[in-house]
Amino acid sequence: MTVRLFLRYDGRGFCGWQIQNEGGSENPSKPTVQGTLNKALRELLRDDSIKVTGCSRTDTGVHALDYCASFEVSSLIVPADKICLALRPLLPETLTVFRSEIAPDGFNARYDTVKKTYRYLFYCGESSFPSLDANAWFVKTQTVPDLEAMNEAAAKLVGTHDFSAFCGDLKNAKTTVRTVFSCSVKKVELEIAPECIGVFELEITGDGFLYNMVRIVAGTVVYAGLGKMTAGDVENALETKARKDAGMTAPPQGLYLSKVYLR
Prior knowledge:
This protein is of the alpha+beta class. The chain has two domains: 2-102, Alpha-Beta Plaits; 114-262, 2-Layer Sandwich (Alpha-Beta Plaits).
């Protein structure tokens, strides 16, 4: 049978989602979400063959608010809907499984996720707020980024395109064509940072994302807001497919996998 899990995590404590070590064993000095979850499930269900599959290979430092994972098991000694509760004492505070259930036959978290929404949080000013720096990108600037210019740049990414210019590593990409359904930026208010000259949230929804794609989109949008790029430059990057024509790769701590959409 297939069990489906929904979880959220703070990426600061993990070296990304996926176990990277040869042979699939977890390096204790480089914990991953997948490895941590595997260990907890194997202990809870007394089955050393369990291996969870994730809906996305989030990078080191990237957070998740709504992540889907699944695993196969021959039998359960804990009811599927109680697994989320039983896992709590076996997981670190930075990782929470908030729902668990039996999935339809053949369900796979990777292949049955049809689209995802990511959010990227960044704030601007002359000095940083340490309490924010672990969860948002500090953009040092004396001027407020132009929200209209950022949205004009973001709008150019909507549609089906070759996103080669927005990929950090092309060698493992079978195809660089993706469909972005929506992409926009809004200003948000944070009372804990009253001296910020602007706190912003980028939201992007697509059928899939290339390596570092959302972080490069965030860097490109911020460049547009600061006058370093234009919406026309974004169009040019899509046309040339050259990484140098897009913006910088924004740091990981501002990125959140916000929602997954399943078949």
